[in-house]
Write a structure and sequence with these properties.
The chain is α/β, with parallel strands linked by helices and 352 residues long. Helix content is 33%, strand content 17%.
Length: 352
Amino acid sequence: MKTCIPTIRIWDDAYAYKKMFVLYGMDVLRREGAVTLVRENYDAFEKRGAPHREGAPYNSHKNLVLFEVEWNGKTVRCVYDANDIYYKIPPRVLDWCDLYFKSNFQEQYLREGQRAAGDYWDSLPILDELLQEPIDVSQYFKFRRANFSMELHGSILRNRWYFHQMEGRWLKTSVPGKSADVFFLGRYWAETRAASLALMDQVAQSGRTLAGGLVEAKDEVPVSHRKYRHKAVGLDTWCRLASSARVPVITRGLQGCVGFKPLNLLMLGAPIFANRFMSNLRVPLVEGVNFVVVADDFSDLNQKLDATSPASLRAMGEANFKHWREVSSPRATANALLRDAIDLSGGGECGS
C-alpha cells in the first residue's frame, strides 16, 4: 500500500518559549519527508473554530501549541500543553480539541477531577482559587501523556545550530577531566528558596567546586549566601556550565513539577542528581539508571556523590542521552504526538 504523508497545520507563534520545542520537532519530520508542515497564525485556527486567545483566568495561550493533523481525509485537532503546572488546562481549549497532550500529566486528577495523588503531592497546599475552571471529567478520554517541554531559541535555524553544538556535550569530556564538581544554576524564588540555600550549604561543607549558583528573581539572596549569586545566562552558556561539571544537580520545581531544565541535561547526555519528582515523560526516568535521588534538604548529597563512581556517572549520562534520542527530543516527541493523532483518525501507514 502506498504510504500517505500527513499534513500538519501548526500555530506558528512569535512567542516561542516552550512552543518552539514542538514546532522544531515537526520541522525535523518535514525535513525528513515524513510530513507536510503548514505554519499558520492563530487567526487561521480561530476561523476553523478554535477559541479566542484572551479570557480570564488565562490571559493567553503562551504555553499551548495548537495543531491539526490531516490524514486520509480526516482532521484531528490537537493541543500540546507545556504549562509547568498540571491544573492550568483552559476548558474552552479542551472543548475544541480531539487530543490534549499534557506535560506534568497527573492521571488521577484528570480522570477523577481530584487533586493529584502521591506522597509529595498530597502534602501540597494547593489553593482552591487555582481551580477556577474545573475540568469536565467526561473529556478525560482526550488526554494523552506528553513529554515535558524545554525552552529554545526563537529561530528554527538557530536551534539547528544549538542542537548540533550541545547534543551529547557532557559525554565529550571524561569525568575526571571536568573543571567543576557540581553544577547548579537556578532562580532563588518562591518555595524553591530553602532547597537552593541548602544545596549551596552542602557544596560548601564538602569543599567541592561549583559551576553556577543562584540567580536572583523577585527575592534577594540572603547576605550569608551572596557569594553564590550568579548572573542569568542564555541557553548556550547554561549548557556549557552544566557540561563542565561532574554532577549536574536540579531541584524540584514550583508546586512539585519536574525540576529546572531536565530535558537540557538529557540532551547533554549528563547524569542527574535531583530531589524526588514525579516524572512526566512518556517513558519515565528510572531512579538509579537516569538519575540519583537526594533528600529534599540535600543532607545526603555529599554521601551520594562519594558513593558514585566516574564509570557510574558516565553510564548514567549515556542512558540519558539514549532517552533523549529515542523518547524526549523534539523529533521523538513530535513523532509520538503524530502517531497518536494518526491512531485516532483510524490508523494506517504513517510516513514518519
